[in-house]
Structures are given as C-alpha cells and as structure tokens.
Amino acid sequence: MLDVNFIREHLAEVKKSTKEKGYKTDVDAILKIDDERKSLLQEVEKMRKDRNDIAAQMKGGKPAPELIAKGKEIKQKLADEEKKLDELTAKVNDALKSVPNVIFDDVPLGGEEKSVEVKKWGENKKSGTDHLDYAASRDWVDFERGAKVAGAKFYYLKGDLAFLENALLQFGLKKVREHGFTYMTTPDLVSSKVLEGTGFAPRSSEQSDEYYIEGEDLALIATAEMPITGYHMDEIIDEDKLPLFYAGYSACFRKEAGTYGKYTRGLFRVHQFNKLEMYCFCLPEQSKEIHEKILAIEEEIWQEIGIPYHVINIAAGDLGAPAAKKYDLEYWSPVNQKYQELTSCSNCTDFQARSVNVRVRRKDGKIEFVHTLNGTAISLARAMVAVIENYATEGGKFKVPEVLRPYLDGREEL
Predict the structure, then answer these.
(1) Which end of the chain is least crowded, N or C, by CB within 10 Å?
(2) Which residues of the chain have pLDDT under 70?
C-alpha cells in the first residue's frame, strides 16, 4: 500500500505507474475522499478539545446545568462524527489497496511484449524431450488419478521423478544457505490481512488466483512470499539487524485465473506445486543492490544445473501491484524453441511493509518502513520440466545433472 501523503506529493508519478501497470484506479477520487476525511478529522479534533475543556470546567464544584447540557450535546455529536470518521478512514484505506506501487525509472513501459532482455547464458539446444510424454511413459507422473482425487491440473509424482524433485530442493537449499539465508517452512494458509498486505490484488475480480477457506478468514498461499511477508508484521526491527534473509519452503496453490492463452502443458502450470522462495527485509538504501544479489543467486543455481536461460526486465504492464521492478529468468525450452518462465525476483520497496506494518528503528531513533524483496530459488514443477527437456536422452534415459547426483545416491542416470 502507498501512503496517501506520498500519493499527493508524487501524484503524476503515481498516476503514470497506475496506468502503465494496467490498473483503472481513479487516484483523484481517492484523494477527494481523503480530503473529506481530513476535513472531518479537524472537526472531530476541535470537538474533542471542546469536550476536554468542558470536563475541566466541571471539576471542583457543582457545574451549571447549561454546561452539563452542552457537555452531553458535544459527547453525542462527537460519537456520531467519530463513527463517520472511522467509516471514511476505512473507505480511504480500502481504496488505497487498488493503487499499485510506483515503478522504477528503468522499467520498460508497455505490455508483456515490451519486456527487455538484459543478459543471456548457455547454448540453446535445437531439440529436446517433451517432459509430460517422457514422465508418463516411465510412470513418473499421474495426472489422471490426480484429477480423480482433486480435479484437473492436480497430479502425483512417483518414483525417480519424486526423488528428482527432492534433489532439486536439496540443491536449492544448499545454495541459499551458502548465501546466508535462514531456512524456514511456512504455514500454507494466511489471513486476509496478510494476503492483502502482500499486495496480491488482481486487476479484476476474474483474475483472483487464491483458494479461500469457506467460513474462515483464511486463504491457501500462492507462494511462501505471503507468510514470510507477515512474519515480522507489526514489529519494529533495529537497524543493525538488517538485512534479514529468509528462504521459505512451502506448497503453493493457484487457481491460475487469467492465464488463457498461456503455456499450460503438464507440470508447467498446475494448481499445486512446491517452491523454495528467497525473501529479504532490508533498509531502503539497500534494496536495489539486494535485488541484483537475489538475481545473481538465481543465475548461479541454473548455471550450475546447466540450463540455458536469459534474464528480462519485466515491462510495467506485466508487473503486479507490489513490484517496483521485477526480473524474470526464462529457460530455453528445446521442445518449444522459445524461452519460458522459470524464476522471478522483485523489489517491492516499502509497499508490502507499509501494509503489514514492518518498520526499522534507525540508530538515531527515527522509525520508518523497511523494504522487502522476493525471488524464486527453485519452483519445483517448472524446474522438473526444464531439466527433463534438457537432460532426457534419445535412448530413453535421464542424464542426471552433476550437481544433483549427490542427492540421488550418486546416480548418473535415472
């Protein structure tokens, strides 16, 4: 969430970012409501002063009937106006949730097609093995029984593919620990306060991607980013403790709403998968450098596994509400002969921290909001797609990437 005073002071910038991200929010209308709130607040504060003055006059003796009557009148009117003020404040705060974060100056403008390649690594193969046909032929995956039990796009992993998933996780854990991240497992459910605070606000109701628990103020998480964002909710962290690096492992649940026309075959886009997510709480002046660090870790992981990729600076029209800037790492699919999303990392500045009230106490005593960043270490379903496409051999065997062999009993082939 953006601060309403920040919006007033940077109105043109906020309007531009809102438009470029594809949100239809009427920012001027929000400020008009906030003007009403501020005006009413002044009236309420004056009435509170009058109430206190009358209370002071009534001490030390028997007050005049007129003073008692006036005190009752102010008390009743104040109660009515305070209720209106609470309603207006809630209305402003609710409206502010529809204003996305401001983009950085180096974010490309336009839709998804305007995203810019910033680097490339590896040699792109001219052919590969379809992951779904390959895994099904070896009885490694079962979508049919997954659909019978839970519905379309749910699945079972079996045998060596389940072991491969675990190997990818263990390798990812090794890498993030080397870079100083504290490993944690997270709740698979969060409250609406955390969900909204994380900033997963869809551009339209048709794009809502979360599964909600009926009768409970809970939703299944789409990423460990959600519960980690809430980990320090309503806390003040001392400056010398920042940055804080966490790596959260969780199941992820997504309806995949609004994905019409996108690549969905097999494990590439499913309703449930496991993921190891990197996350950082840091000082505002640290966030741009840490964003590049998280990207570098993602690149290190996939270079060591040996998967060709490129990195793109995501265009404004394809950014979610929280991100001021986002990189996607897309692997080269030898099957489809194009780059496909594998990981991402975002700098959310103070957008999430303001919503869940995570602040830092500076050494001089000043209190301000921290910055938050997130990045995918290993998204396991897509990771398996990438490695099968690149490492399944013509003879029907799977050549295990060298860095994964220690987690598969040293086996070179599956």
Answers:
(1) C
(2) 201-207, 257-260
Separation of alpha carbons 175 and 166, rounded Å: 14
Q: Is residue 173 part of a domain?
A: yes
Q: State whether 51 and 141 are in the same domain.
A: no
Cα 187 to Cα 229, 342, 344: the distances in Å are 12, 24, 22
Residue 369's nearest CA partner among 397, 348, 384, 399 is: 348
**CATH, residue 82:** 1.10.287.40
Angle at alpha carbon of residue 20, lines to 259 and 210, rounded to 5°:
35
Rounded-to-5 percentages of helix, strand, coil across the chain: 45, 20, 35
Instruction: Name the pairing type of β-strands 371-379 and 182-185.
Output: unpaired
Spell out the residues 6+ positions from residue 274 whose beta carbon is closer than 8 angstroms to its own: 165, 169, 249, 250, 251, 252, 380, 381
Structure-derived torsion over alpha carbons of residues 295, 300, 301, 307, reported in degrees to the nearest 10: 100
Model confidence, pTM: 0.93
The residue segments making up the domain with residue 182 are: 112-407
